[in-house]
Amino acid sequence: MGKIIISGASGAFGRAAAALLLDKVAPQDVILLSRTPARLADFAARGADVRFADFDDPATLPAAMAGGERMLLISTARVGTRVGQHRNAVEAAVAQGVRHIVYTSIIAADEPGNPAIVKYDHRATEEIIEASGAAWTHLRDSQYAEAVAAAMVIPALMAGTKPDNCADGAVAFVSRDDCVATAVGVLTQPGHENKAYTLTGPDLITIPQAMAMASDMAGKPIIVEPVDDDGMFAYFDSLGIPRHASDIMPDGPIPWSSDDMVTFGQSIREGYFAQATDCVERITGRKPKSLREVMLAHKASWPL
Q1: This model's pTM is above 0.85
Q2: Per residue in 33-52, pLDDT tens?
Q3: Domain architecture of the chain: domains with CATH
């Protein structure tokens, strides 16, 4: 088995993937890429090969990718500009001999009618990888359960209300930990080449049902207020969220835009997230965590 590259290894997903991978393969076979390698000193101390890489600077990439056979390409954060970053990474990796690229995508990325604008970056990246000559595996994650348990539940508990444009659209919320374990499984097992996996949790749940679960666990009310897409934009405007990716301040406090969030909700409402698969269990050998389990793990951070 050749060397395995993890990009974005100092991010939350990347660090978790690196830790799990180092439990499965020899450290000298692990290459960790980051714009901030010092944040990976603990992994370097375990014997991993930590390298500087900046996807905005292609000149840094040949040395970063050298010697790798498989790569986990973790989607970068910058909506609107990340396709160019991903293209730079894929081209450099293939030029250096990487033969299999595993990519963290999103559910229904290949559905033409899916209105979520986030899918455009992901599908464009999938197509770049498919055309690169390397084998590919697309990991199409559902919405993270952790995002619900923290970023959604905490302000809802504080306000007592939650405006929502998802209506009765269902989501099988998936734990990021399960997505990490699946990614490492694909990197370390044979037979996943040229396949797309939709990664979900076990239960299809609507946003109102998820908020009711959190309300019950917290012992505090959350009233879900159904709004249309314009109402959702107005809510994000009131919070000072930029409307479009092009309005996001580089390195600013808010790395996402409201058109991303509103069309995400529209996608849920229109049924594009209403899938529950067994891919996590088939690849990891363990049942995926439920939303309730993830909420219980985050409850200590809630404003009770």
Answers
A1: yes
A2: 999 999 999 999 999 999 99
A3: 3-141+176-199 (3.40.50.720), 145-171+202-275+283-301 (3.90.25.10)
